[in-house]
Design brief:
The chain has 4 helices and 5 strands. It has a 5-stranded mixed β-sheet with strand order 2-1-3-4-5. By secondary structure, the chain is α+β, with helices and mostly antiparallel strands. The longest helix is centred in the first third of the chain and has 12 residues. The chain has a single domain, classed as 3-Layer(aba) Sandwich (Cytidine Deaminase, domain 2), CATH 3.40.140. Bound molecules: tetrahydrodeoxyuridine. The site of tetrahydrodeoxyuridine (THU) has 15 residues, from α2.
């Protein structure tokens, strides 16, 4: 857990968030023990910005891994930062129902929830079967 926290905090320091000034860092642990991190990258065309979780997931996929064993997200928020709705769906693509997602503040407060608690009733590939 500490390795994930350090990776997420370090990525957060590189966040590009000149518009919201809200820096977010995320880190993912895979079953192989590898850790991938990401930060939010905003854009002057606001909807083009990307979340920290999306960056960490992209790094994991680019390295050839496909499974999330644990994730950690940190921001300078008053309460542990909850992944946005879109990021919950992105995490659920690679994280099983029981995977722990830890949300944290830079002040040291942490809250851990299971993937299926963060996104109950997730849309999955099973919902597309049978195709017709
Ligand atoms: N943000 C993240 O990177 N992850 C989250 O889980 C919540 C929100 C970013 C997006 C945007 O750059 C800034 O935080 C404010 O919404």
């Amino acid at each position: 857990m500490n390795e994930l926290k350090v990776a997420a905090m370090s990525a957060r320091e590189n966040a590009y968030a000149p518009y919201s000034k809200f820096l977010v860092g995320a880190a993912i642990l895979t079953p192989s023990g590898a850790v991938f991190s990401g930060c939010n990258v905003e854009n002057v065309a606001y909807p083009q910005g990307t979340c920290a979780e999306a960056g960490a997931i992209a790094a994991m996929i680019a390295a050839g891994e496909r499974e999330i064993a644990a994730a950690y997200v940190i921001a300078g928020s008053p309460t542990p930062v909850p992944p946005c709705g879109g990021c919950r769906q992105k995490l659920a693509e690679f994280a099983g129902a029981d995977v722990p997602i830890t949300m944290a503040t830079t002040g040291g407060t942490e809250q851990t929830m299971r993937m299926d608690e963060l996104l109950p009733g997730a849309f999955t590939a099973d919902h597309m079967e049978p195709r017709s």
